[in-house]
TrEMBL record, chain A:
The lineage of its organism: Bacteria, Pseudomonadati, Bacteroidota, Flavobacteriia, Flavobacteriales. Residues 6-223 form the ABC transporter domain. The keyword Metal-binding does not apply. Gene3D superfamilies: P-loop containing nucleotide triphosphate hydrolases. It comes from the Bacteria. This is ABC-type lipoprotein export system ATPase subunit. Belongs to the ABC transporter superfamily. Macrolide exporter (TC 3.A.1.122) family. Keywords: ATP-binding, Lipoprotein, Nucleotide-binding, Transport. It comes from Winogradskyella eximia.
From TrEMBL, chain B:
This is Putative ABC transport system permease protein. The keyword Mitochondrion does not apply. It comes from Winogradskyella eximia. Residues 20-242 form the MacB-like periplasmic core domain. InterPro entries: ABC3_permease_C, MacB_PCD, Macrolide_Exporter_MacB. The lineage of its organism: Bacteria, Pseudomonadati, Bacteroidota, Flavobacteriia, Flavobacteriales.
Length: 223, 807
């Protein structure tokens, strides 16, 4: 039985650059089912990141329809939209984007703080996550003391702690060596098996191969 | 969440050492300044509010109608009003007389040591008005026969540390009378709080004057303090009293009365030249204003640096938003951080304030009875105030930084308009900051030049090397004392006179018709002295002659002027006029009698300043009088002989007046004492001006440090492309020079206006010169420029390879 997580209907994103209107995403039609692992591929500037950001509701389509879990995102108010993405979406970045001032433990804990999760519950959840990613020993270190791969692990742990339905990963292994990349992709595959829907943007064919579906983008269009 | 925010704030404070140091130094100094000044002002406003019957105690003031709609207010009133008030008005519970006096005490009559003390000379009814706490003895019970002396605890411990003093007799050595007065010690009381205009170390309780109120409107004046029955409408009562008094004297009087609440006396006694313990409301406001400005400068530093630094934290905020923070949570985080700075600054400032209290007390000249620390109420109000300031200060940076779109902040893309607004505000604040620094600096210069001007102004007499003995009774030995004094080598001349410089315009006052303005009255002051007075004072003769020793008529022995109309006799005593007086009276010819003044001018001298330069000249007439019963003495001393001369005077005094206290001052000290308030204001301004300049400078230092840090890559690229160090320094300095220039344009007119206004209090004053304004402006410019240049040179000489590699 198939379950639609989100669907895009002629979704378009244009920006004004000077007097020119530039189309970043051009009439995208896309259905994402629960449990899919999608790899977005395409050269630089093809619109991968913009599509991820729009799906992640950090950015918005300028035209067309976007439905997430049956809710019409395109007609929602900003406030409800951010409520929606905070509830259901986790982000993983190429540059990890950990908070330098916080320890590993605190970085993972922060999303729970913003959700006002109770202290005892928080502790249990963070401990689980540290355990699962095998980074218990590093919980009091600061990001700068970790390798890139370890930082990305923390980034993923932080994205997962809120129990999202969808993970959006923008070049998650772009800054990593091949061994670390492999580990991260294995982890994604594992998470996907456990039921998390994943959309990743990547340049790498081998990374894309971990996905269940590959979508190629060129000049803002699905090809 | 809040715990987490505090932890974060603490880490952030520790991480950015330079920023934190600048912010904390500024905030601590600003808060310290405010705490100190607020405490001093609170103390000033707390005067005489500690008495349990404070609402019922009033000082009786007299208004004397001088004609021309001019009236003189005095803190004294008829002694006879005391029985009149107590006998005729049921609203009045008690009336007492209180004078603050200096007394000189010997423990035993044969002692040579004299102890000076400040006391309240009063009567038994004082116990009804003020709640002095009795520690031992039964001082409320007046013991007849002698003056009763009640010591405060500190004075008792100082004079008689381990003695039971109740019942002991000590002796007061008068400076006026001739015989020592025995004082019977009847009790010890707790110290009188220092925040009363009746500040003193002892009470001298007399039997109390019993003078009746005379219908003929004469008698003696005293200071009456009235205790009303609780609930009396004092305004209505003063009307009632005035009506009653007018009736009593038969319908016509120039005297009218008003009641001043005791808690108002300290700050509203500017009319009263005879009391020393009085405050000045406008000085308080000036102090408060300047302290608030300093705190404001510190807050501006904080805002500017926070904003500048927040640009480096945009990424962090973007991440936080993406992982689920909403704007409110981000704002809270940054507000908590701002609050932390204020909390830390307060925690440093409060104990520091506690430590510097002695210095503040030294500065204001008395103990600080009330301060921000003295009640929990004040302290919590203080904290609430700091909290409000912190929230106001922290709000702008917090709102600014939380407003960026998360995607843009992650990419380091910031909307140009947002940055523009931020820079505009930042620059505006820098301008305000420097404007304040310039205004305060100009004030320092003006106050200082005015004081220099006052101190160097030719007073019309020579105030240097001139001694003045306080008025005393000569017991017929005035002439012989005078002779002994003039025989001292080093004394060039001496004069018995009823006036001393700075003590009013003369010894007596006469109201005559104003020849320049018919129908109006003019007050003419009389100084009576012996023939040596003009020479001793060192006044300059313009025309006519001074008194002649050989002419017995120049200084008759009799009472010089007949004041009482009934005693009027044709008495054309010779007199010397000041130039100002001669002009006012339209006197051109010598030896022509002025009938109204019953005098015959023989000479005109250059006008001299009898009072503080705050006041203009007054018409003054000098008349001769030899061998007075009571008078002061002025002694002209040769330069460099002062110590021998004063020693000799003391010796002669002891021989001739063994039981009398010699109260003597140098006239230049007396002159200086008139400007104590201005002196204090000057030191205050100098200190706060340095503080505001320092804070403004470190603020700019922080801003430049921040912007060179942010633009380090740009500097590197520019250098690689061939930019010189100079061009980079110019690049960074240009903006700040512009800002200081704008600040100068804004500040100078304000400074000019404010200082001119202040100067208007002085009849003799400097004008605000452009040079002073420009000097202040250039000092500020130089300080700002130095700060910017030093900081930008540091950035510019760094190796570009290094700065480019840091990316």
């Amino acid at each position: 039985m198939k379950n639609t997580l989100l669907s895009l209907n002629e979704a378009t994103r244009t920006v004004n650059s000077g007097s020119n209107k530039v189309t970043l995403l051009d009439n995208i039609n896309l259905n994402v089912e629960v449990g899919e692992f999608i790899s977005l591929m395409g050269p630089s500037g093809s619109g991968k990141s913009t599509l991820l950001n729009c799906i992640g509701m950090l950015d918005h389509f300028t035209d067309g329809g976007y439905t997430f879990l049956g809710e019409p995102v395109h007609s929602m108010k900003e406030k409800n939209r951010s409520k929606l993405y905070k509830e259901y979406i986790g982000f993983v970045f190429q540059a990890y984007h950990l908070i330098d001032e916080l320890t590993v433990y605190e970085n993972i804990e922060t999303p729970l703080l913003y959700k006002s999760v109770k202290s005892s519950e928080r502790k249990a959840m963070v401990a689980d996550m540290l355990d699962r990613f095998n980074i218990v020993g590093k919980k009091d270190l600061f990001p700068i003391q970790l390798s890139g791969g370890q930082q990305q692990l923390v980034g993923i742990a932080r994205a997962l702690i809120g129990k999202p339905k969808l993970i959006l990963a923008d070049e998650p292994t772009g800054n990593l060596n091949s061994k670390q990349s492999e580990e991260i992709m294995e982890l994604f595959a594992q998470l996907n098996k456990e039921g998390v829907t994943i959309i990743q943007a990547t340049h790498s064919e081998s990374n894309a191969a971990y996905g269940s579906r590959i979508i190629n983008l060129l000049d803002g269009k699905i090809v | 969440m809040i715990k987490n925010n505090i932890k974060l704030a603490w880490r952030s404070i520790r991480k950015n050492r330079l920023f934190s140091m600048i912010s904390l130094t500024g905030l601590t100094l600003g808060l310290l300044a405010c705490i100190s000044v607020v405490s001093v002002v609170l103390d000033d406003f707390s005067y005489d509010s500690q008495w349990s019957r404070k609402d019922d105690i009033h000082r009786l003031l007299t208004n004397v109608d001088m004609g021309n709609d001019v009236s003189n207010k005095m803190s004294a009133s008829w002694a006879g009003l005391r029985p009149a008030l107590m006998d005729n008005f049921p609203e009045v519970e008690a009336v007492t007389n209180i004078y603050t006096v200096d007394r000189h005490i010997k423990k035993n009559i044969e002692d040579t040591d004299v102890i000076d003390l400040k006391a309240l000379e009063t009567d038994s009814l004082i116990w009804d008005l003020f709640d002095f706490k009795v520690i031992s003895g039964n001082p409320k019970q007046f013991i007849h026969g002698k003056s009763n002396l009640v010591l405060t605890k500190t004075l008792k411990d100082k004079l008689f540390p381990d003695e039971d003093v109740i019942g002991k007799i000590v002796f007061s050595i008068p400076s006026f009378g001739s015989e020592p007065t025995p004082f019977l010690i009847t009790g010890i009381i707790e110290n009188i709080p220092s925040n009363t205009h009746l500040r003193a170390e002892a009470l001298i309780i007399e039997k109390g004057r019993l003078e009746a109120l005379y219908k003929e409107q004469y008698g003696s004046f005293t200071r009456n303090y009235v205790l009303f029955k609780t609930g009396t409408d004092v305004n209505k009562f003063s009307e009632k009293l005035n009506t009653w008094y007018t009736d009593f004297v038969g319908g016509e009087t120039k005297y009218s009365y008003e009641f001043q609440p005791i808690s108002d006396t300290y700050l509203n006694s500017e009319f009263d030249n005879e009391i020393d313990i009085k405050g000045n409301r406008s000085t308080d406001y000036i102090l408060l204003g300047v302290a608030i400005l300093v705190l404001f400068i510190a807050c501006v530093n904080f805002v500017n640096l926070s904003v500048a630094r927040s640009l480096t934290r945009i990424k962090e905020v973007g991440v936080r938003k993406v992982i689920g923070a909403d704007r409110k949570q981000i704002i809270t985080q940054f507000l908590v951080e701002s609050l932390m700075y204020f909390v830390i600054a307060s925690l440093i400032a409060l104990p520091t304030f506690y430590l510097i209290i002695p210095f503040i007390e030294q500065f204001i000249g008395h103990a600080l009875q009330v301060s921000l620390l003295s009640s929990l109420e004040y302290l919590s109000l203080g904290f609430v105030a700091v909290f409000i300031v912190a929230v106001i200060t922290g709000t702008y940076p917090a709102f600014l930084i939380s407003g960026f779109k998360p995607m843009n902040s992650l990419k380091g893309l910031i909307n140009k308009n947002e940055i523009y607004g931020q820079q505009f505000i930042q620059k505006g604040l820098v301008v305000v900051q420097f404007s304040i620094a310039i205004i305060v600096l100009v004030s320092v210069f003006i106050v200082k030049s005015q004081l220099d001007f006052i101190n160097n102004k030719d007073l019309g007499y020579d105030e240097e090397n001139l001694l003045a003995i306080n008025p005393t009774s000569w017991d017929g030995k005035g002439e012989s004392f005078h002779k002994e004094i003039t025989n001292i080598p080093g004394v060039t001349s001496a004069s018995l006179a009823n006036w001393r410089p700075t003590f009013g315009s003369g010894g007596m006052l006469k109201s005559i018709d104003n020849p320049n303005n018919l129908g109006s009255k003019m007050q003419v002051w009389f100084i009576a002295g012996d023939v040596h007075l003009p020479k001793t004072l060192g006044v300059k003769l313009i025309s006519g002659r001074l008194f002649d020793e050989k002419l017995i008529t120049d200084a008759p022995q009799s009472k010089p002027i007949a004041f009482n109309n009934e005693e009027k006799k044709v008495n054309t005593q010779p007199s010397i006029l000041t130039e100002f007086t001669a002009n006012a009276l339209q006197v051109t010819k010598m030896n022509t009698t002025i009938p109204e003044l019953e005098t015959n001018p023989i000479g005109i001298v250059k006008s001299f300043h009898t009072q503080s330069l705050r006041y203009d000249f007054k018409p003054v007439v000098i008349v001769g009088e030899s061998n007075p019963d009571y008078s002061s003495m002025l002694i002209r001393v040769k330069e460099g002989t002062s110590s021998e001369v004063t020693a000799k005077i003391n010796k002669i005094w002891k021989q001739m007046f063994p039981n009398k206290y010699l109260a003597m001052n140098w006239v230049d000290d007396l002159v200086e004492k008139q400007y104590l308030e201005e002196d204090r204001l000057q030191s205050f301004f100098s200190f706060f001006s340095m503080l505001s300049l320092l804070l403004s400078a470190i603020g700019v230092f922080g801003l430049v440090a921040q912007s060179t840090e942010q633009r380090i890559k740009e500097i590197g690229v520019r250098k690689v492309l061939g930019a010189s160090v100079k061009s980079i320094v110019v690049l960074f300095s240009k903006d700040y020079v512009k800002l200081v220039a704008i600040a100068i344009v804004i500040a100078l007119p304000i400074a000019w206006f404010a200082t001119s206004k202040w100067l208007q209090d002085f009849a003799y004053r400097i004008s605000v010169e452009w040079v002073v304004l420009l000097l202040a402006a250039s000092i500020v410019l130089v300080i700002a420029l130095t700060t910017v240049v030093v900081q930008s040179i540091r950035a510019a000489i760094r190796n570009p390879i290094k700065s480019l590699r840091t990316e």
